[in-house]
Design brief:
This protein is of the alpha/beta class and 632 residues long. It has 3 domains: 36-173, Beta-Lactamase, CATH 3.30.450.20; 184-356, Reverse transcriptase/Diguanylate cyclase domain (Alpha-Beta Plaits, 2-Layer Sandwich), CATH 3.30.70; 369-624, EAL domain (TIM Barrel). The chain has 24 helices and 22 strands. The protein starts with 18 loop residues before the first strand and ends in an 8-residue tail after the last helix. The relative contact order is 0.06. The protein binds ligand C2E and magnesium ion (MG) (2 copies). Ligand C2E binds at residues 388, 404-405, 416-418, 421, 434, 437, 463, 465, 495, 525-526, 549, 586-589, 606-608, 613.
Length: 632
């Protein structure tokens, strides 16, 4: 292999692309005097004889083709110097083709500024590679930028080379325009979602691998409050103008706080992600404070009302702020965090920015994980029931038990109902879960009855959620379960909260009536925490009031009695009795509380004084003890 000194090697590989074409006169003296000058004298701009070409006609044809070709071309020697350039090449560079002779092709076609390209070019000239193809940006002496497709390949014989430089500026400009349209939002002229994600991904990549930056990234995810109302009441045209005005203010804000908004240049990128959602991206973030400051600036910027075609409009926005190290962060992860945080900002009252909180997020993730696995967990049998005695205050004996559900979660351990009942109500799985609880409790109560036929049977009290009354046929479920388990209806009590029965008309009322007619007792759970309309309750088929635990806790100790609570409970109990209701007190924890409740005339008590919620086998022992809870 031969090695050659190729002309045009950059002094500094990697200098800025977009070279300025050298003036040919400048280059004249720098080139090899002998061979080159001869060619210049006799054949300036003409094709010299090729070594292996002998027939004069063929040679003449090639020369004519070279001369009249519309593709800019030049013939190079083994050092990369131009032997001859055709008129099209001269035209491209705005010069006489003859003046290009002996110029270094690498300078003219910018093959030396990129080290990798330079190596590839040398490989061709040294015969180690067949061809080179690349796109370069050149600066025309007249000032304009030229985009060109450059090709270099050896001619037969391997001593000389053909350089082609096709002008692709028009195509390049067209592609750039198309890309701009694709990547920008026509309403606000801001970068759109696609460009935002492109920038975000490359920013994350750069920040993770570039030791020079801060290695951190920040994002403000903004959503206008109540924008839909603007669109709905004033029309989409005004809505669009508002978005455009908002975009301008956000861009100014991004400029003021350090970056440049509005386009994809380096700095804070402002993008419209769709609808009334905007994103402000802080590359190389200096920390949470910087991103929070940007968020505050955005809120302040939107505070002044907007004047739009005679309409004065005030808007506010909610912003989710996320700031973290770029390493290990993905675009999707960052956006999810921003989305959650934006939701918190809305939930916390709108017109504010909220910072991402990992703890709050973990809680949300657990909620989500629980919520999505509730339904399959019922099928997998992950729930169990515990039973807490309901004790007659007069004789101290258990008359019934309340069934309380627990979730034996394979990952999170045993969960109390306050962790999942509300979720089950939200996603509707309470219907299946409630049905399971009802059936398991009735089956258990019947089993106790059969196991201890001589003992006084215990009734079972089952909690029923509002949605079970509305979304399922509770009456049919209860009837079916009583029939299947053979539990007498009078041994079943259903606990509903005040909110479930208050204002009930139509379906809930009919359901309560049908259940009561069946012989099932209805109790109002946590009484006193809701509307507490006793007069109304008395008109419903309700037979038991379960006084909320806060009343009993309010009794305090003998040294510090709270007469107000005691008076209220006394009045409630006597009123309930007059209306034909019995009263159960929740959360009885001390003998003193029990004594006062007994004196007041309360019928039943439930609480740690008697027993904690127990597994079913302990209740069997309770039956053996004739319902006495002393040892529990
Ligand atoms: P609840 O129906 O008012 O049940 C009484 C709650 O008070 C139970 O909590 C019980 O463990 C607790 N408790 C009992 N005695 C005392 C005491 O002396 N002091 C104190 N501080 N607390 C006492 P748990 O088991 O965590 O149940 C909480 C709530 O979950 C229940 O309140 C009920 O509303 C709901 N729940 C439980 N099981 C079910 C169910 O199967 N279905 C539905 N829909 N809700 C249920
Ligand atoms: Mg209850
Ligand atoms: Mg209760």
């Amino acid at each position: 292999m031969r090695e050659r000194a190729v002309s045009g090697h950059p002094d500094r590989p990697g200098r800025t692309p977009g070279v300025t074409l050298p003036s040919v006169t400048e280059r004249k003296g720098t080139t090899n005097e002998s061979g080159v000058r001869a060619e210049r004298q006799g054949t300036a701009g003409r094709l010299p004889a090729l070594a292996h070409e002998s027939p004069a006609t063929a040679f003449g044809d090639y020369r004519a083709a070279f001369h009249s070709a519309r593709l800019p071309m030049a013939l190079l020697d083994g050092d990369g110097l131009i032997i001859a350039a055709n008129p099209a090449f001269g035209e491209l560079l705005g010069t006489d083709p003859g003046r290009l002779t002996s110029a270094a092709a690498a300078d003219l076609a910018d093959l030396g500024s990129d080290p990798r390209l330079w190596t590839a070019y040398r490989e061709v000239l040294c015969g180690r590679s067949d061809r080179l193809r690349c796109t370069r940006r050149l600066k025309h002496p007249a000032g304009q930028t030229l985009w060109v497709e450059v090709g270099v390949e050896p001619l037969p014989g391997g001593e000389r080379f053909l350089l082609t430089v096709a002008d692709s500026s028009d195509r390049h400009d067209l592609l750039a325009r198309v890309r701009h349209l694709q990547m920008h939002d026509p309403v606000t002229r801001l970068p759109n979602r696609a460009l935002f994600f492109e920038r975000l991904s490359s920013a994350l990549e750069a920040a993770s691998f570039e030791p020079s930056g801060t290695g951190r990234i920040g994002l403000c995810y903004l959503d206008l409050d109540g924008f839909k109302a603007v669109n709905d009441t004033l029309g989409h045209r005004v809505g669009d103008r508002l978005l455009s005005a908002v975009a301008q203010r956000l861009s100014r804000c991004a400029e003021r706080t350090g970056g440049r908004g509005g386009d994809a240049s380096r700095g804070h990128l402002v993008a419209r992600l769709g609808g009334d959602e905007f994103a402000l991206l802080v590359e190389n973030s200096a920390g949470t404070d910087q991103v929070a400051e940007l968020a505050q600036c955005a809120l302040d910027a939107l505070q002044q009302p907007f004047d739009l075609a005679g309409q004065r409009l005030s808007v506010s926005a909610s912003i989710g702020v996320v700031e973290r190290t770029a390493a290990g962060t993905t675009a999707t992860g960052l956006m999810q965090a921003a989305d959650t945080t934006l939701y918190w900002a809305k939930e916390d009252g709108k017109a504010r920015w909220t910072l991402f909180d990992p703890e709050r997020n973990a809680h949300r993730m657990t909620r989500q994980a629980l919520s999505s696995t509730l339904r399959p967990a019922v099928d997998r049998g992950e729930f169990t029931l515990e039973y807490q005695p309901l004790v007659g205050l007069g004789n101290g004996r258990a008359e019934g038990v309340e069934a309380l559900v627990r979730w034996r979660h394979p990952q999170f351990g045993t969960l109390a109902p306050n962790r999942f009942i509300a979720l089950a109500e939200e996603n509707g799985s309470i219907v299946e879960l409630g049905r399971w609880v009802l059936e398991a409790a009735c089956r258990q109560a019947r089993a106790w009855q059969l196991e201890r036929p001589a003992a006084r049977p215990l009734f079972v009290s089952v909690n029923v959620a509002v949605r079970q009354v509305w979304d399922s046929d509770l009456v049919a479920d209860v009837a079916g379960i009583l029939a299947a388990t053979e539990l007498p209806p009078e041994l079943l009590q259903l606990e509903l909260t005040e909110s479930a029965v208050m204002g009930s008309a139509g379906r809930p009322l009919q359901a309560l009536q049908a259940l009561s007619d069946m012989g099932v007792r209805i109790a109002i759970d946590d009484f006193g925490t809701g509307y507490s309309n006793l007069a109304y309750l008395s008109r419903l088929p309700v037979s038991v009031l379960k006084l909320d635990g806060t009343f009993v806790s309010g009794f305090r100790s003998q040294e510090h009695p709270n007469p107000a609570d005691e008076t209220i409970v006394e009045a409630l109990v006597s009123l309930a009795h007059r209306l034909g209701l019995t009263v159960t007190a929740e959360c009885v924890e001390s003998a003193e509380q029990a004594a006062r409740l007994r004196r007041i005339g309360c019928d039943t008590g439930q609480g740690w004084l008697y027993a904690r919620p127990l597994p079913p086998e302990r209740i069997t022992a309770l039956l053996d003890a004739d319902g006495r809870t002393d040892d529990f």
